[in-house]
Amino acid sequence: MKITRRRLLKLGMMAGAGMVLPVGAMGAAVARLGAVNSVTSPKVKPFIVPLPVPPVLEPVRTSATTDYYEITQRIGRQEVLPGPKTEVWGYDGVFPGPTIEAKSGRRVVVRQWNELPVPVSTHLHGGKTPPESDGYPTDLILPQGYGPGAPSMDAGHGPTAEHSHMFKDYSYPNEQRAATLWYHDHRMDFTGPQVYKGLAGLYVIRDEVEGGLSLPKGEKEVPLVISDRTFGEDGSFYYPSIDPSLEGEPGVLVSQHNGMLGDTILVNGAPWPYMEVSNTRYRFRVLNASNARDYDLSLDPPPPGGKPFVQIGSDGGLLEAPVRHDRVRISPAERFDVVVDFSRYPVGTKVTLKNREEGKGPTSEVMRFTVARREKDESTAPERLAPEQDFPDPNAAEVTRRFKFSNSAVGMWSINGKPFDPERMDARPRLGSTEIWEFTSSSSHPVHVHLVHFRVLSRNGGKPGPYDAGWKDTVYVTSGETVRVAARFSGYKGRYVLHCHNLEHEDMMMMANFEVV
Ligand code: C2O
Ligand code: CU
Ligand code: CU
Fold first, then answer.
1. How far, in Å, are 11, 407, 417 from residue 21 at the CA level?
2. Nearest CA to ligand 1 atom 1
3. Confidence (pTM)
């Protein structure tokens, strides 16, 4: 791959100039440097914008087995901050994109049209998807008339003159349990800026197990897509690309090498929004859709007796039994499905969702709930959620593989010392086999594996952490940690990736291939 070689060459030259940092020098403390931004967003008063909820997409057609959708990736203008409109690159031109509601066992086909000025690749995060629909980083949908000869797999021209843009049909079997998934851009070297501009949306799979529980639903089942952005004076998204056209040199300014941290917190695309609730239970599907920021969520004030967050689900769907938390730490791409019972607060209480990670300052707050009225609660809080899960048995594992996440040079992050190369296969698990994968790291990385959900076995040889329950597809590996997970490589043969979900690290090559054989 030309880009890879060219970049390596360039990095080699930088190394020659003495810019190499020793592996491990980028500790968690240094990661905070990314917050030092020359650009500061216009001031927004928190808790004045009502919480929006992304629209649910309607299928264009359904058959006995399949729901068909069409999405056009295009530029839109949206009031993100009160006042000036922000240019977003969105699915159907909106940010976050429309939510797709799927049923377990029923196929969804999404035709993605690309009307953006750049190539795109769309990945369903958490999806058990055949390789040709997984949104491999170089499996691009090119814009019309884009650089001839550039590679594109499975993409086709539109059937009519009015629709001569390029599209790709992504086919999702949904042979998996109910869970909160999300779809987002995955273009090689440019995922960070393209997601930041708005290319992310929710994809919810439902099934009968979940439907049989009387969890909060309807208006009381609320997605919370949390992200951070910095805005220019004119309300535009500020992203520190080396080449803001996203057509030439990839990468970000060295100051954001550790990951782009914005100074404004958005929930469902609105800055520090508020939501009025009744004194009943609500279910929140929390997704951290930020490029690089992790959150340590808590409620202020806490309810009497504490433990406001009753976690009912993880990345891979319902837990067997709820886990109660005072705080929820969520790293990029993770999902936590939590129930909060507002009857534990007197009517009239204002409850702030805080991010303790940041101590004080604007990014220490996320949104606010106002317990506005009394209402009879129709939901229950079951102590048994999912039936006993068939987790992969670590004793049956045939192979243990080690993946070391580190930075090898300024502007380059790597796995086992190697920057991503689409042509190098890094692991070949056998279809249907169980493997133990061990992730180690000198700084903090949310590690994500495509195709499979895994079970966290241990952290530093001890017990899994408080946020490791259930099936995971993304696990936060913090500074100096070793995290062991077990996965069963069932589903499909073919080529997939694992990578750090800090999108700047991902773009700067912290990614590896595996092929299920
Ligand atoms: Cu959410 Cu490979 O990504
Ligand atoms: Cu994924
Ligand atoms: Cu990382």
1. 12, 8, 13
2. 125
3. 0.91
